[in-house]
Amino acid sequence: MTQVLEARTAGATDTRPSLDYRSFATVDDAPGWRVTALDQLATWLRSKKRLDLDLGIDGTHQVLDRVVTVRHHEASHVSAFRLVMEEDNDGGHWTTRVMVVEDARGTGWVSVDVVSAARQYVGTPWAARYFLDALSLTDAGYPLRSVPRVMGVAAIPELVTALTDPRRRAPVYVTGTDATLGIPFDTWVERVTTWTSDVAGLAHVVVLDPVATAAFEENVGREWAAPAWAIRTYQPGLDLDDGSPWRHRLLGTQRLVDHSDGATRRLLGRTARALTASQRPPSQLVTWRRKFDRLETSVLTDAIDELSVEAFTTSPTPAASAASDLDLVDPPSHQTDARATPIPQADPALMVARELGRVQSVLGLDDLEDATLTALAARMRKDTMLLADTRARLQAQDARIEQLDEDRNRLRDELETSALETLVAQDEIASLKDRNVWLGKELARHNDHATAFMPLPEGTSTDYPTSYEGLLERVEELRSHGLHVTADERRACELDAVDTNGQTVRTAWDALLTLVDYKRACDEGSFAGDMRSYLANTPPGFRNVPPKKYASGETQATMDQYGDERVFAVPDLISTSGRATMTQHFKLGKIGMVSPRLYYYDDHDGPSGLIVVGYIGRHLRNTQTN
Questions:
Q1: Where are the domains of the chain?
Q2: pLDDT of residue 331
Q3: What's the rounded Cα separation, in Å, for the pair 31 and 404?
Q4: pTM, rounded to two decimals
Q5: Which of 49, 436, 455, 493 makes the best surface tag, with the fewest CB within 10 Å?
Q6: Could you give the CA distance from residue 262 to residue 267 in angstroms, rounded to a whole number?
Q7: By C-alpha distance, which of 165, 447, 435, 401 is closest to 289?
């Protein structure tokens, strides 16, 4: 137990990439697959751990250097199972946790975690391989396989859909091929199988044939493509419009040639483990972890209860044996004489003495004096209070751990989002610096040295609001420029509680100013086209935002289910009902599930001549949020 606590403490502060194996997969099999899963676990324990256990019975088993705890739990037509194995070997202390959850309809999931207290690299556990072989495991509906999947051109739409699916948790390793190196296709597939053997259950692996390689590049663009004879890692959360292809790294041909198979296998395995560990655990996994942890607390406190009772249930002392000899008469087993022999009646005083002696023996008391009995009662009251206090403390610790886990996951999400936003901002800053240097050179080349080196004139820098409340107070400044804001002030100001550093407020103000300049450019004839074209080719002297911040619409599935949430107030000149559907929007930033959005209606060339901002607030529901 000490080793486990030390490992948890170390893991709480260690910022190195995780080397543990943590897999989660849904199961796409007929109802009753849970039986198959437990059979596979039992086979794994027998064949790999030399443990022959009945996994249908709850309990804790200790065999040599291994302690295995088995628990079942039934709740709301859901059957859940957890196995926890603690073991020690030359590599240190290892913890294996396996969970299997199936509901009455057959839907459910499995998870396999193997953690090294010494932070050693954890290879793919045999338990996970057994599951992969026996069950149809999926990640967001896409099959998880123990070997690479070879794809032809017909499967490219499926691949693109899987890569961009926001529900996907597992990274996707994609490698292309062509005719340049003369490597037989089957040989390359074998090499990739070897290199990716440590990502089974953690990642998808795809090998594209030459035709599919070209089709994939044509579909996603060169910057997002998977080159031939290289391996590209597509992280979860891929957005082909986010302008950050560098996040999805490439393992080039030369690197594959120069390093051993083992080094490449370990590199890809480390990447998969780090990416898996960096994500927030699925909500259903967190829920059942907590249920089983509470169950373990209950088992512990019940055991303490039993120990408290056993403390007063000691073996009979000689005094007790002597007291039992006070039984004066034993009834005969049969009557041999026709004349009944009267049975002597026991002396009541002796009967009371016998019972008192038995009580004294069971309670382990020296005597039955008032002081002794009073001390016993006080001790029992104290033990009862201590037990209640222990139970309450354990329950409070469980609740505190759950809250700390939730806080850690939230902070990790915010840190990852902040880091990504910082990298994107650094790219934009670098691009602007390059442009400024180029413009300075051009001005100097045209002998306009004064303009090239003059400081920024007063009044030309942007004065940003520091809160959404402050932003709404300033929108009147923009009304004269044809920007009309009808957004619900309450929903906008709610964002101030989560955007504590004002980061998304600045983006929102930039978006409003961009709308103003877009309308001005169109009205003045400096530009003709839609917002996407404007952001990609902004005329000189006009403001814009990064193209990735803009979305021209919503998917049909989202509009079918949640289109009514995107109907907002507009002037009567636009709609006699005073409301209109808005799908064009700006993505103001990522703050967990809040991730604010700004929706607008473009009527700059319509009857009103306005651009109407109908919504500023938290991310509206879509097909991926529910």
A1: 1-139, 411-458, 462-617
A2: 44
A3: 36
A4: 0.65
A5: 455
A6: 9
A7: 401
Beta bridge partners of 103: 78
- Give the C-alpha separation, 112 to 85, whole Å: 12
Q: Which two tokens stand for residue 566?
A: 């995107």
Residues found in the chain: 626
Residues in Cβ contact with 6 at an 8 Å cutoff, skipping those fewer than 6 apart: 117
Contacts of 55 (CB under 8 A, 6+ apart): 38, 41, 42, 45, 70, 81, 83
At residue 344 the predicted structure's pLDDT band, cuts being 50, 70 and 90, is low
Mean confidence (pLDDT) of the chain? 83
Residue 601: other Cβ atoms inside 10 A: 26
CB-count burial class (<10 Å; 0-12, 13-18, 19+) for 290: middle
Contact between residue 203 and residue 171 where contact means Cβ atoms under 8 Å apart:
yes
556 has a pLDDT exceeding 90: no
Q: Please tell me the distance from the alpha carbon of residue 87 to that of residue 116, in angstroms, as a whole number.
A: 10
Among the residue ranges 157-171, 405-419, 443-457, 472-486, the one predicted with the least confidence is 405-419
User: CB count, 10 Å around CB of 223?
Assistant: 12
Beta strands in 134-256 (DSSP E): 137-139, 142-143, 149-151, 172-175, 204-208, 231-234, 250-251
Element (H, E) at 307: helix 283-310
User: In angstroms, rounded to a whole number, what is the distance separating the alpha carbons of residues 358 and 547?
Assistant: 87
Predicted pLDDT of residue 11:
42
SS3 87: strand
Two structure tokens written together for 224: 């997002």
d(CA 484, CA 516): 10
- pLDDT digits over 71-116, tens only? 999 988 999 999 999 999 888 999 999 999 999 899 999 999 999 9
- For 138-153, how does the pLDDT look when each residue is reduced to its tens digit (9 = 90+)? 998 999 999 999 999 9
Q: Is-contact 84 77, C-beta < 8 A?
A: no
User: Phi-psi category of 621—alpha, beta or left, where left has phi over 0 and alpha has psi -120 to 50?
Assistant: beta
The residue whose two tokens read 């507009």 is 570
DSSP one-letter code for 496? G
What is the predicted pLDDT for the residue at 521? 95
Residue type for position 383: D
Q: What's the pLDDT tens digit per position in 246-278? A: 889 999 998 898 899 999 999 999 999 989 988
509, amino acid identity? W
Nearest to 234 by CA among 172, 168, 175, 144: 172
